[in-house]
Design brief:
single chain; alpha+beta; Thiol Ester Dehydrase, Chain A; six-stranded mixed beta sheet; 3 helices; about 20% helix
Length: about 150
């Protein structure tokens, strides 16, 4: 399971003194991009390929609060994938230092051509990196949106 550790900083807090919803989304996105960078796709590679990940929907389920300067571990798994890799769902689980689940983020997205502004199938190596992620227990195969 791919996992990264973060600290909930001052900018991650809301008025109620716990981690705000957008901070959960930010930690999830950072984990996704760190995974791709660690697997041969840093931002410079996306720029060279003229593609990038685009999020069409985020769903956040909250379980427990995270306070200022608490450590969180963020996991990444693939929850759904089109055979051609053009569309996907990735799931992050955010755990507090005590091991308790704080939130689950499921992001639905795809690969956007920065030239045509349409979804595209990723290059084989990127599809390989995506396919290498651990799959969730409820993994599903998506239909390709390409025609």
């Amino acid at each position: 399971m791919y996992e990264k550790t973060f600290v909930a900083g001052w900018a991650d807090m809301d008025f109620n003194s716990h981690m705000k919803n957008t901070a959960f989304l930010d930690k999830s996105a950072d984990t996704r991009m760190m995974y791709f960078a660690a697997n041969g796709f840093p931002m410079s590679q996306f720029v060279a390929l003229e593609i990038g990940p685009v999020i069409m929907k985020d769903e956040v389920e909250y379980s427990r609060e995270v306070g200022l300067l608490e450590t969180v571990n963020v996991t990444l798994a693939v929850a759904a994938l089109a055979n051609d890799g053009s569309r996907w769902m990735m799931r992050n689980e955010i755990f507090r230092a005590d091991g308790k689940l704080a939130a689950r983020v499921t992001s639905t997205g795809g690969w956007l051509s920065l030239r045509s502004r349409r979804l595209v199938a990723p290059p084989e190596a990127l599809l390989g990196a995506l396919s290498a992620l651990e799959r969730t227990a409820d993994f599903q195969t998506l239909a390709s949106s390409l025609r």
